[in-house]
Amino acid sequence: MAAPGAGAPARLVQYVVVRSDLVHSLSWPLGAVITQACHAATAAIHLHYTDPDTQRYLQELDSMHKVVLGAPDEAALSGLSQTLTQAGVLHKLWIEQPENIPTCLALKPYPKDTVHPLLKKFKLFK
């Protein structure tokens, strides 16, 4: 007998990683930080709109799954972006303009098991 869920497509997740120091050290309003995450998530979907995983993610409109993680500072966020780029993981590093400040990044939707190992050192955003 097959295991439950065998043959089912993997659950897609869009990861968003936000600099936690923006709120906790630099005193950005929480709404402004949430806006940055929304910008990054929207941009990642737009940039990879024709990707098959993105299309499947969008077809599951009422059951989209996002995970928002916190990066402690700009260096950690930039380092993660470099790691993702080297691993071939498609994402958008959001840089707030005109200040030119990297604030967050969002991956295109991926099966969780594909990208989770690259993100495991980051904890849920608080």
From TrEMBL:
| Keywords, ordered alphabetically | Hydrolase
Q: Which transformation does this protein catalyse, written as a reaction?
A: an N-acyl-L-alpha-aminoacyl-tRNA + H2O = an N-acyl-L-amino acid + a tRNA + H(+)
**Family matches, as CDD domains:** PTH2_like (cd02429)
| Organism field | Periophthalmus magnuspinnatus
Q: Which domain of life is it from?
A: Eukaryota
Give the matching InterPro entries: Pep_tRNA_hydro_II_dom_sf (IPR023476), PTH2 (IPR002833), PTRHD1 (IPR042237)
Record's protein name = peptidyl-tRNA hydrolase
Q: Name one GO molecular function term.
A: peptidyl-tRNA hydrolase activity
Which EC number applies?
Answer: 3.1.1.29
